[in-house]
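Let's practice the habit of predicting before peeking. Look at the sequence and jot down your guess about where helices and strands might fall. Then scroll down.
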Amino acid sequence: MLIPVIYKDKRHDLVKNTRIDEFLNTDKIAMFHRKNGWVRVGVDPVRTKKNEPYLRGANRRKG
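Done guessing? Here is the structure:
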């Protein structure tokens, strides 16, 4: 499946959904499109890194 993305330099592209994590982890994209609309990286909720443990309760939100 191809996902529309907007890179930080304003270029538009379609990337494989399997590469979204890579682009998020390397801070290459500014936005990507989900079924319910555009996600702004650093502003809207995105996937958590797989190596971070899930925190429960009041401490789950950082900052």
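How did you do? The mean pLDDT is 82.
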